[in-house]
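Message: I would value a second opinion on how I read folds in token form. Give me a protein, with the fold worked out from its sequence. Write it directly below this note and I will take it from there.
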Amino acid sequence: MEKIVDIIESIAHEKGLDIKEVRSTVTMALVKTAKKIYGQDFEYDAEIDPVSKTLKLYQKVTVVDKNDERLLEKNENFIALKEAKEIDPQVEIGDELTYELPLDNLGRTAAATLQKELEYHIQRLLENNIFEKYKNMVNKTVFGTVVRVDNEENTYIEIDEVRAILPRKNRIKGEKFKVGNVVKSVIRKVFIDKTQGIYVELSRTSPKFLESLLELEVPEIKDGLVIINGSARIPGERAKVSLTSLHPNIDAVGATVGTKGVRINSISKELNGENIDCIEYSNIPEIFIARALSPAMITSVKIKDGKAIVTLSADQKSKAIGKNGINIRLTSMLTGMDIELVEIGGTTAMDGSTISDDAPKNQNALKNLFGGL
């Protein structure tokens, strides 16, 4: 066990681990080895002598009353007070004494056991560090190379120390990847799987992916001069993102869009042509909802019972609803409110259907028209 400190430093450097963590792992492995060799019922402690740079093992015993025969006879973890006083005159009942156990007497079996314990615990330490690293990267964008695509079209991507998975459901509609492709995505979640080990799930459909791309592309967002208040996506089709400028001379929307749309177009290209609406955030719900319904021009917005009643002219209805209701759906997702459109002649629900004020009149006309059939 000579120069154990040098061995620890070598392991830490080779594996990229913290020296203190490796020290703790080595001492823990020695204690576990001692329990396997000498017995699980005994108490042990281990430490590294900073002067001699050697690893030392101790057996711990508890001082008890000499009349406590039950403990003294059946368990070597205890010592009578009288005997303990001969070692340390100031010791009292309940104190602990330690005896150094020479490691040279452990033998080959113990050495092999210690090696296995070290390998196991160093591997666990590596896995734990990798897990913590990627857990702290959740909602951050990463790059990786596709190494496999399975029969269910799940894409496996190599990212530094781990092989992450991009499930089919987290892939933008119409996208297909081949082995060797470099893919950009956001880490959606990280957990420990009992059979697979560290599980890193990626996503290209999460609103956090859009936000992460904006942070990478727009310096004002990266520097904290413009903040993203929220975002909503229908992946591959359209997205809305709300922004606030923290600097009086910076236009949040203009900075994000970029000159001639160069910044936002770059992100749209990465998202398979997804159209992105940039909206200036307002803490006044009525104003925020009116802006979010762009490109529609809104006459008024009223909040009632947690629902936004939006009044607009008839020629703006289709713009507010959007193709297949996508604009009103994204606005509801972004603002967190149900939206009801009210126009002259009717009310429009979130699904785009119209409830006409002239419904009774229309029903009578239909009766008259088809009454003779």
About this structure: The first strand starts at residue 43 and ends at 49. Residues 107-135 form the longest helix (29 residues). Residues 206-281 form a domain with the GMP Synthetase; Chain A, domain 3 fold (CATH 3.30.300.20).
